[in-house]
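Can't attach files on this board, so I'm pasting raw text. These are the components:
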Amino acid sequence: MTTISYPTLIPRPKEYVSGVWSWLTTVDHKKIGTMYGVIAFFWFLVGGIEALLIRIQLSGPEGKFLTPEVYNQVFTMHGTTMIFLVVMPLSAAFFNWMVPLMIGARDVAFPRLNAFSLWAFLFGGILLNISWFTGEAPNAGWFAYAPNTEVPFNPKNGVTYWILGLQVLGIASLAAGFNFLTTIINMRAPGMTFMKLPVFIWMTAVVNVLIVLAFPVITVALIQLQFDRLYGTHFFNPVMGGDPVMWQHMFWLFGHPEVYILILPAMGIVSEVLPTFSKKPIFGYPFIVFSGIGIGFLGWFVWSHHMFTVGLGPAANAAFSISTMLIAVPTGVKIFNWIGTLWGGSIRATPALLFSIAFIGMFVIGGLSGVTHAAPPSDAQQQDTYYVVAHFHYVLFGGALLGLWSGIYYWWPKFTGKFLNEKIGYLHFTVVLIGFNITFFPMHWLGLDGMPRRIATYPESMGWEVSNLVASLGSFILGFGVLIFIYNVIYSRKGPKNAGNDPWDGRTLEWSIPSPPPHYNFETIPEVKYRDDFWYKKYPELANESHGGGSGSEEDSHGESHSEPHMPDPSYYPLFLGLGMSIMIGGFIPFTGHWIVCGVGLAIFIWSFLGWCYEPVND
Amino acid sequence: MTSKLPKYLALFSLVWVFIISCSPQHQQSTFANAGPVAQQQSNLYYLMFWIAALIFVLVQGALIFALLNFRRREKPIPGSDFTVPDIPPKQVHGNTKLEIIWTIIPALILIVIAVPTVQTIYDTYQPPEDSDPLEVVAMGHQWWWEFRYPDEGIVTANELFIPTDRPIRITLQSQDVIHSFWVPQAAGKKDTVPGNTNVMWLQIDEPGNYSGQCAEFCGVAHARMRFRVIAEEEADFNTWMDAMKTPPKMDTSDGYGLFLAHCSMCHSIDSYNEGSYEKELTMQDERWDDWYFNQEESVRVSAPNLTHLGIRSMLAAGQKDMTKENLITWIKDPSEFKQGTRMQSVASVYKGGPAKLEDHEIEAIADYLLAQIPDGWGVVKTGGETEEEVEAVVWNTPEEHGEYLFVNQGCAGCHSLNEEEVIVGPSMYGLYDRSGDKVPGLSAEEYIYQSIVYPNEYIVEGYPANVMPQIFINLSEEELQALVSYLKTIE
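---
Top answer:
Structure tokens for the assembled complex are below.
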């Protein structure tokens, strides 16, 4: 056997380096998940402050709090931040933490790639927000419609920051998407067939298929826009024969699956929380799973409902209208099945459960208002008004974020070994739910009353004053609710580590191991016989009622337990690869000397790429 | 947490109250339907709303009922140390029949919605076939609206006059970015997309003013891109059309010259003349190209047509009432009413700041603009006193006459008389001396004369084309000769 000497520029860190470097070099999915969560929550506060600035500006007519230019920057960054830097990475935090734990694995398929996703996400977010400090924050909306994003109309660098920041974030999402898909497909515990997967894992799989297929579309569109802006092409420039509607098609062909990327993880969380706190299995597991897949699939055929007023003609509008309405069917199935899960259960109303219930309630409102703009004639009055703002905040805040909060309360004991305080949790829930409704419900009639979106101010005498003021007051109640949550986290850190392995009488594998889990998760990889396997290990007498494949397919089991967990070593390279890539991409922003920055980034990128490839394994 | 039911009920009654009474008196209420298109659109909305309301009550009711009814009861049994044991309930995994039912029912409901939806899509797409629609072109500009009546040869801005009870077919275009034409009381919105032409139609049954607004984010002044639809009885509308073809009373006040000097390279004001419609379309394109391809140096850009501005009710794209006071503020510093206007960033009289004009000059321009009223127009809406005696001027020599014209026709606004100073166009200093050998075969007098009449043919190197108004061809022969004589004297 020949020995190959690897060109290692720096040695691989030992498995238990301590302090900051233990976080910077980690490849442990739990630590990565925690960092995803903390960073995303930081951006949540930033995006929330941006939201409050918007509400201050609009609290009365002829608002002078922000100039129109700054207002445009703030609403652009609010949308971009909340979607790409908050809801997606918060979901990714749950994917990271929960996927290996729920499928009985010790880590994800590609641990270093996982770390790379995290760092690319971090640096992408920073790149996007550096624009605030150069005074050129993106100002063309998160949808960046051409030709308003073309240089003649937008000569500053804001949109370029937006393009390149999104490219970095897209790479982070793609890397994570492939990673989780591979993990779910290849690393399930023996016996865990696809139809025994927890629903959250199913939804994670659907989301990551969507990410892997949707992000290339926006990547291409962003490259085209970048070339339009920097290198004189005319993809979207009508003056030179380009087509601005093409941008809209590409953006929404990504953008609509993106909506399901945002909501399906929360649906997965709710599908775990409801059975646990009802002490019943999920009602109609196959319906729930296939409706989730159906939503993901149909999500590809509805993008033009964002474009009903663009003038695609009656035939296209009719077709996309019907395909959009079709999505209500699988969504309805999910909601009915969730209610079916609660029905006849033994419900414990913890904050986690209440957030899940509120998710359903708010999501129903958002879904129903969604049907009213699935009809193009009705949408012609609602498109680009506050009615739509109300709609998607009911879906994305009332839906996605409440669902994620449900997940935080549900899995916090697993993350930390401690409970989040229940009383403060109830208060947090109540204030957030009330504040949320006061903020966003009046927007329904503001929109129906003719108030367009994205206006920096509005004149007196439109009749919009009272509703706007109410919404602005509500937004501060909502902000206060977020502070209560922060207080709860701080307060609960002092509490005892009394959660134990299984505080909620849980159903899925993560509750079978200590809280917080050891770095190798499972001492022995569990053998799975049933859907909700852990539940039936606890209550074998209930197992004969199970529809969860109780027949136990022995051929799936490898019958081999790993007694000596071998975990991947930490690595410096994901951090530097992410850093180098982000600097390189940031170097395309045309400031003086930007090619030097780009070159430095490229050098770091190549060095860490080679280092990554040749990195040895510690003995 | 048991008090969710009343909250949801309160929430629902709020919805109900607000939908029912959704403020039809508000200017942009989508429920204050003024014509058939808006009516059909809100009929569809009402259908969906009531179905949604029913589903809302059933689903939220079931959810809350389940939450309240199936709560775990771990209360101690009174009088003993025992608690109700926490036994898992019956483990129901699903009910295929039930699940198929609740898959099919929503699908059926959607059919109930989809059929009228598709019908309404086609019904609201084109005006009824047996009708005689008025053709209008609406052009979105950053950040104002241009309205054209191709059959009548009328161009105007920010106020769309239409007859009642007649379908209006609106062709939607844009010169710059995407905007969206929206008059909530009349019809849902449709986008104006550069490079694509869209068509929509609307009809208004009652005379009145209807408020409209750009609904697609279009840049910094998006919120300030408003407009008005003014619906009038057929006879009144015809009066308006005739008036738009009638010149205003002659005006030779100072304001005219100042307007020509500082405003007329972008704003047309004489589109009542025969053939002016086609000319305005060409000019607007030229102005636009001039700005688009030469943003650094261009001093002009497409701008609202100001013909008969005095009969408009609003200024600055629906921002303020058309009063002299507001007009003066607007001319002095447009950002008072609207930040980010092209007028302020492009026109050489602003170049980003307040107007470089004396107060009395601004007032003179405002007076001149407000006096732009078709001769014989019944209702004078201006508040300012514009009646002023024009002094009869007598000129002793053609040179004196020329000097008067040089100032009052606005030449002096762009052309200085000093050797050093360049305002917009070349300085007139020493013009005669250098004009003789500019173009072979043209004497100095002929060159000067031709440059006034056909400015674009004789662009001096280093100066942009298309800046000098091509309107001096309208001067009389005597006046032109007087100007030439005067220009010869500047040495």
